[in-house]
Amino acid sequence: MISALAFLLGGAEAPERIIGGPSTGGCMAGAVQLPAQGDGFAAIHLANSSFWGASETIARLELLGERVRAAGLPDVYVDDISRRFGGPMPGGHLSHQVGLDADVGLDVRPRPALTPATRETVELPNLVRPDGRGVVPERWSAGVVTLLRLAAGLPEVDRILVNPAIKRQLCQSVTGDRTWLRLIRPWYGHAAHMHIRFRCPAGQAECQQPPPPPVGDGCDATLQWWFDQLDHPPKPSGAPERVPTPPAACRAILAGGG
Description:
Strand content: 15-25%
Strand order of the largest sheet: 8-11-9-10
CATH class: Alpha Beta
Shape: globular
Radius of gyration: 18 Å
Number of domains: 1
Distance between the termini: 17 Å
CATH architecture: 2-Layer Sandwich
Mean pLDDT: 91
Oligomer: single chain
Largest sheet: 4 strands, mixed
Structural class: alpha+beta
């Protein structure tokens, strides 16, 4: 397994190359694998998830673990990042194709250490009420806010996707410095984990960087829109959601050819 440090010291199998982006599909070469266990974090569902990412992504997840432990929080659980060479992932993920996206659990309640069996079967608790309009009080705490703030403070974070109810709770409860709330964006699902997306690394000309989040803390009418949809949900189209097809330049990489 290639660690983030080994990559940065020149130990990668291939030069890092990121092609595409979250909306276009893509791939990567020279990926680094997140260790199954580290300081302040643990990877879960090893048999069914993928933990490869850009060297910067892995290093920043390791940094999040260090900051989480320093804050006195339990180890965070990391789920999908990307496959070894990127590209479409099983399970309906649409944007985990270029090693810049990572799913991190939001539960910060005390829990026993993982065993090989529980690592595979652990379920991330849902923080959102069944009606989708608020959080579950007994699962929400100042620790959840701290975890989200620590994630938003990582270098080169593009945005963090959470359920609209989680965003609303932050808008209602965070005092003092609220600038980091700009990076916390509402999105479908994401009731048990946050989806951290990092910006394209410097020098990756083929990596497609999405537009930045709008200015402001996001606690305005744009947030209310998500709850209006609960009263008037759109009719299902019947068509499956389209997974972006990686660019043609990815063919050799996805075939394992580097």
